[in-house]
Amino acid sequence: MWTAPISITLTRDLTLDGVSSKSFARSTRQSDSDLMPLLRGAYVNRQEFKALDLSQRHLTRLCALRLVGRLSGEAAIARESAAVIHGLPLIGKLPERVQLVRRGRTGGKTTAATRTLPAPEDCDMVEIDGIRVTSVAQTLIDLGRRRPFASNLTSLDAALRRGNVTKEQLLSLVDAHPHTSGNTRLRRWIEVADPRSESPGESLSRAVMIEHHLPLPRLQDEIWDLRGRLVGRVDFIWPDLGVIGEFDGNVKYGRQMAGRPIEEVIQDERRREIAVERASGMRVVRWLWRDAWQGEP
């Protein structure tokens, strides 16, 4: 949970080895340097950091802040930063700064590495490895007030699927602040969240369907042939329309590969698709990340 995906070099460790922090910082500013400054006192390998996805980069920043002792005190990790700690998927951009909150009406502060905002006195917090973090439920509510629908539905679906929260818990946090802007929208988003969505891509696809007022499918239906054999479980199905929908993502294929060539995996998936169409009498339609992003699943 608090393990950075790449190594972090601290200047305080270098000074113990007799290396001047100023000379080290100067060397990292060279164009051919392998290291880059992540925040004051912490450095990472430039190429390794660039290879990380957005959540991994944010986690690396969080771990660096903790290593240099800047995540102590009354402030709690919040919003997108808390989502990363809790392992909640997010769609779209993440803030460069680590997000923090502090109970009270004052206390807002922005530094090069962090942004701290005031939070209500009843802001729900937990402690993880000695560091304050907003609870999963509180994090979801906070995200719901600042991020777009697709990202929020993805986080909500995942939290419900894992059993981290219930819809009742989320609604109680919304109702605790009846005059806060966005409550109607939040209740609607909580209502349509579904733990049967098994991946961010499936949640994004549903968000597009909902936003475009398309007929909503059933999720994760099993398809059986006439001999009573299970042919497969499908992401989406519209029985009245005679259509089955499948989201094709790299994560799905990654789970199936297990060292096999990608061509073999694709051939197996094509055979499965034909078997599903024969058993169901429906047409299978597939789409990719780029299709869902463009709103054209």
TrEMBL record:
Domain of life of the organism encoding this protein: Bacteria
Stated name of the protein: Uncharacterized protein
